[in-house]
Amino acid sequence: MRKSMYTVGIVDDQLSSTTYLKLALQEFPFLNVMYEQDNPLQALEYLRTHKLDILFLDMDMPQINGETMVSMLKSPPVIAICSNYDNYGYVVSRIQARGYISKMPSFELLERLVWDLLAEVDRREESNSKPKVLMIMDINNREQALHVNELLFISCDDKLLTIVTERKTYTVRMSLSALIRLLPIDGFCQVHRSYVVSLAAVIARTSTELIIGGNDTVIPLGRIYKENFQKAIMTFEMQKRR
Questions:
Q1: Nearest alpha carbon to residue 147 among 165, 129, 169
Q2: What is the average per-residue pLDDT within 169-198?
Q3: Choices 3.40.50.300, 3.30.470.20, 2.40.50.1020, 3.90.550.10: CATH for 133-241
Q4: pTM above 0.85, yes or no
Q5: pLDDT tens-digit profile of 204-228?
Q6: Please, what is the Cα angle at 18 between 13 and 22, to 5 degrees?
Q7: What's the pLDDT score for residue 100?
Q8: What is the DSSP code (8-state) at residue 20?
Q9: Which CATH class is domain 6-129?
Q10: How do strand 217-220 and strand 209-212 relate by DSSP bridges?
Q11: C-alpha 154: how far from chain center
C-alpha cells in the first residue's frame, strides 16, 4: 500500500441496505468510509469537487443510474459495483469497475475485492506521479530531455533502445524493462519482446500488427502480449471518451 489511509464512499438510493457493507468495511483499519449519499445527483456534484479513492456504487437508482453517473465524471474514483441483483456484471468493463459485489458479501469475497481496489488506487497514483519529462543520456553521452507525451514507440536491439518521438529519434544504452518502469503505465504498453508503444499513438490495429501514427510504422503484436494490450487499449480509449 502507498498510503496509510484510503477514503471510501458509498452511493445507493437505499443506504439502509448497505449497513452490513459499511460495518464490514470498518474491519479494515486503512479504510475511511467518509461519504455516504442516497441521491445520485448530489453524489455527482460532490465527486466533481472532492476526491475519493474508492466508491461502492449501486447501479439501479432514480434520476440517473450508476453507469450514467460514472460516465459524467472526468476522473472517477476506483469503482466497485454494489448491488443485490446479479444482472449488472456486463457493466463492470464498460465503466472500468474493479469488481462486482452484493450488499451482504462474505468477508472473504469483500477482502479479496478490497485488496484489488487498493492495488488499482496505488497504480493510478503511481502513474500520475511519473515525470512528464525524462532526462536520458544518449549513445554519445549527451543528456536529452524526452517529453513523454511526444513518445510514439520504443524498439530494442540487444541493449540499445531506439526511442521514436514526434520530433526526434534517440538511441540510448538502456534495457527496455528499465525504461518501462519510468513511463506512465496507463499510457504505454509492451506489445512485443522488442517493442513498447504509446497507446495514444496507435491509429490502427489487426490481430498481429499495430500502425503507429506520425510515421505509419508497423509494429508486430506478439501473441503473449496480445491479451494485455487489448485490455490496455480498451481502458485507454474509454478514459479518452470521458
A1: 165
A2: 90
A3: 2.40.50.1020
A4: no
A5: 999 999 999 877 899 999 999 999 8
A6: 130
A7: 86
A8: H
A9: alpha beta
A10: antiparallel
A11: 21
